[in-house]
Structure formats: C-alpha cells, structure tokens
Amino acid sequence: MLDQLIEFVINHYVLVGLFFALLIAFFLNEGRLGGATVSPSELVTLINKEEGLVLDIRDRKDFNAGHIVDAVNVPYTTVDSRLADLEKYQSRAVVIVCKMGQHSGAVGRKLRALGFNNVRRLSGGIAEWRASNMPLVK
Fold first, then answer.
1. Predicted local distance difference test score (pLDDT) of residue 66
2. Is 115 left (phi over 0), alpha (psi -120 to 50) or beta?
C-alpha cells in the first residue's frame, strides 16, 4: 500500500503538488474569512483597551460551567435566529469563543457578512484559555 502511494506521488507529482497548494490556500482563505485569531493574552488586552465583546457560542450548559468575564452567550445552534440581537455590537471588536476553535470561523463569516468589520476568533477556544490559566466565571 505504501509502495503504491509513493509510486503515485512520483508519477503524478504535479497533481500532488497542486493538491497540497490548493489545500493550503483553502485553509488560509477560511481562516481569513472567519476573522483573525487572537491568543488569550491578546484577548485580555482587547477587552481592557478596546472594550472588545466576547461572544461565547458554546451550549448554555458549557457556558454556565465556566466562561470569560462579561461574555455574551449565543449558542452556535441559535446564531442564525439571533443575528439581529448582535447588530448592536457592530461597532465593537467582537471575539468569538467556542470549545476548541472549530465553530468560530463559521460564525465569524456570518458576522462579517452582516457588516461587522472587527471580528476575531480565540485561538484554541476556551480550551486554550483554560490551558493558559486564565480566569473563568461560573
């Protein structure tokens, strides 16, 4: 099996190279459309200096178990129906937080489509926040 894979790569190096180039371009584009990522320490600075809004898109149960101070909870499954509620935050920097960073890009794209200009995502989600020993409110 591995021999066949190596033979395929050697015989079709142009196709394999094009595949990897497109794959990298896809991930770069998806990341850019969903908003730039910020680290936990950058998020603290953003909240303190720019009055950034933390939009927590985790389920209510996870949110109640521990969340970032002053975070607004709009569960991922209800974001589409609550987009009108978020329009009042359009002028602020919005940082989207999920469990591990996998859903925040999709919500970021939706917010940017609505005219939010300063949308960012917490890199690694709340898991990275916890790993950095940052405080949570229960």
1. 94
2. left
